[in-house]
Structures are given as structure tokens and as C-alpha cells.
Amino acid sequence: MTKFIDLNLDPKVLDAIIEAGYDTPTPIQEQAIPHALMAKDVLGIAQTGTGKTAAFTLPMISILAQGRARARMPRSLVLCPTRELAAQVAENFEIYGKYHKLTMALLIGGVSFKDQDKLIDRGVDVLIATPGRLIDHFERGKLMLTGIEIMVVDEADRMLDMGFIPDIERIFKLTPFTRQTLFFSATMPPEITRLTQEFLHNPTRVEVARQSTASDTITQKVVSWKAASKEGSDKEKRDVLRGLIDAEAAAEKLTNAIIFCNRKSNVDIVAKSLTKHGYNAAAIHGDLDQKVRMRTLDGFRSGDIKILCASDVAARGLDIPNVSHVINFDVPIHSEDYVHRIGRTGRAGRTGDSLTLCLPYEEKYLEKIEELIETKIERIDPPEGAIREQRARRPRRDDENSDKPRRNSRRRNEKPAETQETAPTAEVVEAAPTPKAEVQAQPQPQPQSKPQPEAPRQQNNSNENRNRGRGGRGRRRDDLGPPVLGLGDHVPAFLNIPLPELKAPKRKSADVEEAVDGSDDEAA
């Protein structure tokens, strides 16, 4: 069995590795480190949780042990898609490079430019950055990339998902042609393959496992059911989620968990719902302040936070060794994200559990995931009682015993009771049942007492009655006289202004003057 001592690493690096508690390299480390130490370009493909970060960190420290950095000209560059992953890479450099005097700078968003400029001005051996912040420093004239000796792109496929490919191409063109390039990722889409063919020079491909596969130490299950209604599906999901957490905790399996959601808004909703029901939960996503994100992540690592509700910002590269469960509240739309999500558990040979909540409309995404990983995931039913209790708490809309009044229960053509009493129609009066004797004794109504034009107007005046019933905004037509056609109850004031008299023209034409003269002669 190969040991770290057999990989020709720097002695000080070996001392740091032993103090960190490691002795045997993982397959990706065993195959990638020797080629990296020989200054070759490396294309590394391996499952999540297999130690890809150390596979490029250890040889970089050994190579950079000799040499000196210059101001604003870093010697090496590590590009990461997220702030959390960049901070984790920086932690690895601090652990393994503790016996070296290498300087390091972390360029990520949410941190003051002024503090980062001070570090760059002193000169750094290792520059760890996200693409956006790196380009910001370059455009401000605070950074030059012409001294880069080693360039690393970590989680390259995530760069593609986040739209960083144009930035990556620009950064590559700013670095020297003679640089050494290391690419590491768990998946390798065609676009990333094109990028490696363009910017890597005869790379050594290190692939320790088939692409897009999950670790065998992870138990994968899918909880599928049909919601009672589309409107209540999210609430049912949250109830099923709590039922799963309680069931796994009762079986003494769940010690902590990461819950992934597709949308940032869902992350906050799920975290608040769990906190409301007494669970120790917190949220992390890209819209939060960087300090809040790091504090939440540190709390989860230390065990102060048991349940971490996260977006895909936490799905790539984060090394939290003792995560017992990963729960997908939403089925990921991109199949590769599923591999990265569940890779947060079952790391470094440990066992882990993955649970995915799936409603019928999400089955199409689940089928693509199974096609990608070439594995049929086991289906299970929701915890007993979770959905039944939730549906019992929510009253049905058509329940006759429900105390909640239904909206728009009155028919659209039905007149308000108040209006019917104050303005009854002629037809209603004539149709009212009366005794025969009273009809004979009652005198016949005169034609003048019942205006003929009003009857059809009242008969088809349901809209007017309905308008008068809305807060008394309308007035009865009997008080306004005959209606004005086309303008409603009011005539605009400008229509009542009298037209000015037309003035005669000052100069008359010749024909008009002759006609006037002729008429005068005849009169004479």
C-alpha cells in the first residue's frame, strides 16, 4: 500500500500531513501528485469526497517552497466557484503549509477591497479567488497575472453551471503560456472538455472512478407520494421532512444533516419552519452576507448547528467529514447536482444516507438522475402519520361544516338583499302571491302610475344594482332622471360649455362681392 512518504513530497509537508492525522493517500492523490510534482498538466476526475483538494494542495506547496513572490504578481492561482469552497482551500493551505513561510491571499466577495489590496501589494505565493473578484482586482490595476507558475481550476463543471466560462477563458489568456495547469472535477461536461483541450497542454488524465457516480458508502432512497392539492404540496413536503428527521433520529442514525433546496427562497422557508417546530436549523445561500455564511458553516462544522438548509452553494467541494444525512427537499433539476449534493455525506470511507423528497411533477428529473448514475434508486413511503395529520389539520374547501366563509359564494347575478328591499322591480311586485279576495277588492292600477320605460331598465339592471351594493358608491336612477346614453350618470363639464359664435371673414372673395352687389341692384 502506497504511503505519503512514497510520493516524493517535501519533508515539511509530510510532517504537516502526519500531524493532521493522515497516512495513506486516496486513489486520486496517489495518481495525481506524482504527475503534478513533475510539472505536468493534470486533468483529475473523481467522486466527491475523495480528497481532490489535497491532490493539488500538497504538490503546490512542495513546488512553491523554493522561490519568492513579488508585489502584485502572485506565483500561483487557485480558482473556485464559490466563496465557501475558496475559504476551505485556504484552510487546507494553512494546515499543510504550516512549516513553510508561503504567503497567501483570499480574494472573495463580501470582503473589503482595501484589506485584499494590502495582501496583494506585499506579494503572495498562493492566490485563491473566485473568478468575479479576481477580474475586479485586475481591472482596477491592482493585480498582474504574468508571474503565474501554477494554475488550478477546482470544480470546473460548477464554473460552467454558474456562467464563469467566459471569465475563465479571459483569465487563462492573461496567464503565461508556460504555466502548469491542474483541472479537478467530479463531472466533465462537453464544454469543460473543450476548455481543457484549448488551455491544457498534453494533460495527464487521472480518472479513479467513472464520471458522475456516487460513493458506494451512501445509501440512497427516494420518498415519493402524491399531494392532496397543488397549493398544499409545499406544506406537505415540510411535514414529510420533519417526519423523516424524527424517524431517522429515533433510529439513532441522524446526528446532523444538510437539506438542499433548488431556490434560495425555499431555503429560508424550510429553515424558518424547522426552527419554529423546535429543530436546531440554520440557512445558507448566496444572498446572505459572507460573514453570516461563514459563521453558519463554522457552527455546523463544530456541531452547534445540527441541520443546515442550503442551496447548491454548499453542494460543491465543502469538506465536512461527519455529515450523517443529506436530504434533497427538491429534486435537483441538473442531474450532476445530485451527485455533488449527496457527496457531502459518506466521505473518506464513512457511511451516509441520502433521502430525496419527490412529488409526481419531479419524477422526470429523477429519471434523468437514475440514467446518469446508472442506478435505480429505492422508493419508500413517507413516515406513517405525517401526511394524514397534515391533511386533517387543513380543512377542505368544499367542507360543509367549515366555519370559514367561502369567497364569492353569492352568485354573480344575485342581487344584494339590501338592494332588493329598497328597489324592487315591477315584475317582482306583480308576481307576488296574494289571496283572490284581495285581488278583487284592490283597484286596478292606472297606466300612469307605472312608467313603461322603467320596467325593462329595472329588469336588466343587475349590474347597476350590484354596483350600488359595493359600499354605496352608486345612486338610484330615480333620483337622477332619465339616463344620458353613453356617458353613465355624469356628463363631463366640458360638454356643457357653449360653442363660440363664428366670426365673418375680414376679406371677401370676388365672387361673393359680385353676388352681394347684384342682390342690391335687384332690391333697388
CATH class of the largest domain: Alpha Beta
Q: What is the helix content?
A: 25-40%
| Strand-residue proportion | 5-15%
How does the overall form come out from the CA principal axes?
globular
**Which regions are unreliable across 5 or more consecutive residues at pLDDT < 50?**
395-406, 409-443, 449-472, 519-524
CATH superfamily of the largest domain: P-loop containing nucleotide triphosphate hydrolases
How many beta-strand runs?
14
Largest sheet: 7 strands, parallel
Q: Please, how many helices?
A: 21
Rg from alpha-carbon coordinates? 39 Å
Q: What is the average per-residue confidence, as pLDDT, rounded to a whole number?
A: 80
Helix/strand class: alpha/beta
Name of the CATH architecture of the largest domain:
3-Layer(aba) Sandwich
Folded structure, characterized:
The chain is an alpha/beta fold and 524 residues long. The protein folds into two domains: 4-207, P-loop containing nucleotide triphosphate hydrolases (Rossmann fold), CATH 3.40.50; 218-393, Rossmann fold (3-Layer(aba) Sandwich). Helix content is 40%, strand content 12%. The chain has 21 helices and 14 strands. The protein has helices at 11-19, 27-37, 52-64, 83-96, 113-122, 131-139, 156-161, 165-174, 190-199, 233-250, 264-276, 290-302, 335-342, 363-373, 386-393, 417-422, 426-431, 436-441, 454-459, 462-468, 510-523, and strands at 42-45, 76-79, 104-107, 126-129, 150-154, 180-185, 204-207, 218-224, 257-260, 281-284, 307-310, 325-328, 352-358, 378-380. The protein has a seven-stranded parallel sheet with strand order 3-4-2-5-6-1-7. The longest helix has 18 residues, at 233-250. The N and C termini lie far apart (141 Å). The model is unreliable at 395-406, 409-443, 449-472 and 519-524 (pLDDT under 50).
